[in-house]
Design brief:
alpha+beta; two-stranded antiparallel ribbon; 5 helices; five-stranded mixed β-barrel; 21% helix
Amino acid sequence: MGLKGAAMTLRNWALASTVLLLLCSSDVWGQKPPDTAPVIPQVVPQEAVECTGWHALCSLADDCAPNGECGCWRVNENYMVGTSNIKNDQIKATTQRRCTNKNPCGVDEAPVCAAIQSGQFTVEGVAYPWISTYSYRGWCENWDPVECTNVDKAPWADCMTSPCWENSDPDRPLTCACTINHGAFVGTNGTCVAAGGEGNMMSTIPLHSWNFRLQTFNFDMPGYEYVKGACSAIHSDPYR
């Protein structure tokens, strides 16, 4: 064998040794994954909590005044509070610390529930006799959501935990001072136009909160699975 042949043989042996070393390596076979930090689920506040008792219901009011005041219903039943929209910073912080995706609060366990039920919920330092929250009364007949995307400057009212007081209207005996928002929203009663005259607005939710394809909220809303079934006409679902 000449020098040229010997050199080729040595290169072949070197290549074979490298391949053998790689094949024997546990990393190649996936038996020894690289060191990585364990994935720890992020702890985030519970998006909505459930309470019981008296509250103002403004969710389907479609004729709120231009100043954001809405005529609302007086209701005694389970209700929900969106924790990101609590209009009392201290109660909001306490509720979001106590009620998380890791340790969710059950019915009436959230601090905001106790604050509303005891009359200790204040807005800008003032205690009001009534607070607006969210419940499902009137849902089946009046929700009928539509996308309102071409009304970027149209106002809509966000009434979550807004302060309220009594008025003389026997049907909607509470007036609530709701927050005025602008931008895309979910129209109720099949329309994007508020009732009652120019400048009025509807009490509703931002567009990103509702999934029109699945007909559900884009967050975990307590009780909705039961209400959705109650609103549906009786029928059999496909089995297979």
